Amino acid sequence: MGNTSGKSLRRGTADKSSSSLSLKGREDTVENLSRWITAEKRRTQDILEENYDVYKQRMHLLKHMFKQLDPNIMATATFVNHGDLELAVKYDVSRRQLLVKIIQARDLRARDLRGKTSDPYVKLWLQKERGGEVGNVYKTRIMPKTLSPKWNEIFSFPIDNMDLLDGTFLIFQVWDNDITERDDMIGENVVSISSMNISSGRHEFNAWYSLKASTDLNITGTVSFDISFEMPDVLTIKVLKGEGLTQKSTDRLPNCRVKLQVPGIALCFETEIKENTIDPVWEETFEFPVTLDQLCTKYIVLHVIDVRDGQQNETLGQIIYDLDNITPHSGFNGTMELADLKNSERLRSRWFQHFLLQEFRESLTAHANFHQPSFLFKNSEGTKVHLFPIEYKVFVNIL
User: Which of 298, 303, 353, 365 has the fewest Cβ atoms nearer than 10 Å?
Assistant: First the structure.
């Protein structure tokens, strides 16, 4: 009996010792794993920083490929369709006239009381970039109760020299005629004459244009700001000052504030309000949590507003700055012009904020890191990345 107890006691002591060793082994394993993960994270970060230019090239190639395969991936998820307008433009050299033909519209927004149809007409004129109309403001016939009107009307703008059209825009607006109340705008577009390639006067330019919310071409002024990046994930923006901002009210100067946002990051900052000035000075600094690999896919929006007590605030313009230009070793220090960018695809886009499309962004990052699909990347001449144009074209056609 005594021997049995002794054996049991020794066995129990051995089991307890073995358990302690096993527990200590697990702790060592966890600690080693933690060290490995930390080291691997640092190594990956170091590689990414050293090869950041190559990484950016890969991301651009991938985004371009996916945009070709499915443009909807890179398009806005919150687009409001105002309809489309077809027009033709030609410069008559002998008569020295710019001829604009309003042909037709399709898929217009219904603006009547019942929301089923509209009575559309078009207003059009020429305007310089910073205001000032050129020639007359024309208006087509009213087409009753239709969302697909056909006008086929031609309007002429006397232009003695094609050089006078540099920096000139054609503005066309589609309106819904309302007999009892004020007419409602359905949508507009602003098109640079220089983009139409009609300088020779030999060809007629014909195209469909999507209608958007109205654009204010009278926005003026600049904003000066600094941007810097600090590893691992601190993006710093310092808003310095504004100069020559727009004064939209004749009886008062604006109360200026800047709103800052990086789409896809749930933070929005605001500067202090600088009252009664078109040349505000802020000198305020803000920080966003942005990682190095996010720099080539994100941008920052600076939106200047006129704060009005008891009234709706007025927009004084926006600036969009691509963080693709920022690296851990070089930032931005400068001045940019304000513009009315509310119709910008970026300001209307919410694809970074959508869960599935956020996964898509992360997928792009993984592809860029692991050089997949392999046909898209080819390393030669050091770290330069090349695209296989033939295979890429075949791949797109197959899909």
Answer: 353
pTM above 0.85, yes or no: no
Give CB contacts under 8 A, 24+ apart, made by 142-148: 142/177, 143/119, 144/119, 145/117, 145/118, 145/119, 146/117, 146/118, 146/119, 146/120, 147/83, 147/106, 147/107, 147/108, 147/109, 147/110, 147/117, 147/118, 147/120, 148/104, 148/105, 148/106, 148/107, 148/108
Burial of 155 (0-12, 13-18, 19+ CB in 10 A): buried
Kindly write down the DSSP assignment for every residue of 270-298, as one continuous string.
EPPPB-S-SS-EEEEEEEE---GGGTTT-
Q: Pick the closest to residue 238 from 307, 320, 332 (CA basis).
A: 332
| Per-run averaged pLDDT (10 residues), the chain, 399 residues | 45 49 60 68 58 62 54 43 90 88 93 79 85 77 95 91 75 89 86 79 82 81 96 95 93 95 91 97 97 87 92 90 88 92 58 44 57 54 41 35
- Cβ proximity of 83 and 106 under 8 Å: yes
Q: 123 Cβ partners below 8 Å, 6+ apart?
A: 137, 138, 139, 172, 173, 175
Structural domains in the chain? 84-210 (2.60.40.150), 222-348 (2.60.40.150)
CA-CA-CA-CA dihedral for 342, 345, 349, 351, to nearest 10 = -170
Per DSSP bridges, beta strands 384-386 and 378-380 are antiparallel
Contact 116, 110 (CB under 8 A): yes
Q: How far apart are CA 130 and CA 218, in angstroms?
A: 5
DSSP code of residue 212: B
152 to 107, 189, 287: CA distances (angstroms): 17, 18, 54
